[in-house]
Amino acid sequence: MTHYPFGVSSASKASWRITQFRVAVWICSLLWSVGVLAGDSFTGRVVSVTDGDTIKVLVDKREIKVRLYGIDCPESKQAFGTRAKHFTSNLPSSN
User: Fold this and answer.
1) What pTM did the predictor assign?
2) Residue 36: its pLDDT value, please?
3) In the sheet where 62-67 sits, what is the strand order?
4) Less CB within 10 Å around the terminal CB: N or C of the chain?
């Protein structure tokens, strides 16, 4: 609950809430952009497909679990999970 000083009008409260919302949106945008811009890139070989939106990549003799950004597939034990995994497995590689 937000506490306001004594004598604050309801218009000022609404203005304060809008300001808080704008600051929250700005902070979220900043954190998102830093995460995207600072994201590491790498190359490797896909060694397995866990499900439709998760793969394992071999990089410098280490397996790295990679979640595919912007993809939301059913998990393996959910309906159509097997089809999603097969679809991802059949995607062409860049070799």
Assistant:
1) 0.53
2) 53
3) 45-51, 54-59, 62-67
4) N
